[in-house]
Design brief:
41% of the residues lie in helices and 13% in strands. By secondary structure, the protein is of the alpha/beta class. Strands 3-4-2-1-5-6-7 form a 7-stranded mixed beta sheet, sandwiched between helices. The longest helix has 16 residues. The two termini are 22 Å apart.
Length: 186
C-alpha cells in the first residue's frame, strides 16, 4: 500500500511503502513565490471561489476549465507542465483530498489545505492524516476563517514538512520485486 502516513497493519502480508512519484516531481526544484495554488476536481465548489475572492492573497485556480483573471484569482485550464511548475513554486496548495496530489505536495514541502469531497472516505482519511502529521489542515468547508487559519499557520506546517522523509520509488520497487520473486518460486 502506498502511503504518506504509516499505521499498524493487521496482516503480515500487507506492506506500506512511500508514494509512487513521477520523475518530474522527484527531480523538481522548488521555490516559494507569492501565490497559493488551488486545484479542484470539479467546478462545483463555488463557495471556495467566493471565499478566495474575500482574501487579500493571489490564488492560481485549476479545475474550472477557463483562462481568466478575476481580481486576486487567476483561472487556468489544465496544462500539466505549467501546473507542476506552479505547484513547485507556490506558497501552499488548496485541494480536495486526493492521494496523488497531496503526496506530491508533501514531497515538495508544500503545506496543504485539504477540503475532501463529501462522503469520500479515502479523501477524508488522507486529510485527517495530513492534519495529524502537521503537514496541513483538514477542512469540511472552505470558509474565510478556515482559510485564514491555514494561511496563518504556514510556518508550522513547513516546519513539520521539513521532517518528512523524502524518498524516490526504489523502496517500493524493491519490495515489489521481492514479492514477485516470492510468489514466482512458490
Amino acid at each position: 500500500i502506498t502511503t504518506f502516513f504509516y499505521t499498524q497493519t493487521r496482516s503480515k502480508n500487507v506492506f506500506l511503502v512511500p508514494p509512487i512519484l513521477r520523475n518530474s516531481i522527484l527531480n523538481m526544484k522548488t521555490k516559494e513565490k507569492d501565490y497559493f495554488l488551488v486545484y479542484q476536481t470539479s467546478d462545483s465548489n463555488r463557495q471556495l471561489i467566493t471565499t478566495l475572492k474575500r482574501i487579500n492573497k493571489k490564488f492560481i485556480v485549476y479545475g474550472f476549465n477557463k483562462e481568466k483573471k478575476e481580481g486576486n484569482l487567476v483561472f487556468r485550464k489544465f496544462n500539466e507542465k505549467l501546473f507542476f511548475k506552479e505547484l513547485a513554486n507556490c506558497k501552499a496548495l488548496i485541494t480536495n483530498g486526493g492521494f496523488t496530489l497531496i503526496s506530491e505536495a508533501i514531497h515538495l514541502g508544500k503545506p496543504v489545505l485539504s477540503i475532501p469531497v463529501r462522503r469520500h472516505f479515502e479523501q477524508i482519511i488522507n486529510a485527517i492524516y495530513l492534519e495529524r502529521l502537521g503537514y496541513g489542515k483538514y477542512a469540511h468547508y472552505a470558509n474565510k476563517e478556515t482559510l485564514l487559519e491555514f494561511i496563518e499557520n504556514l510556518d508550522a506546517y513547513k516546519k513539520c514538512l521539513k521532517g518528512y522523509n523524502r524518498r524516490d520509488n526504489s523502496k517500493m520497487l524493491r519490495k515489489l520485486d521481492n514479492v514477485i520473486r516470492e510468489f514466482s518460486s512458490a
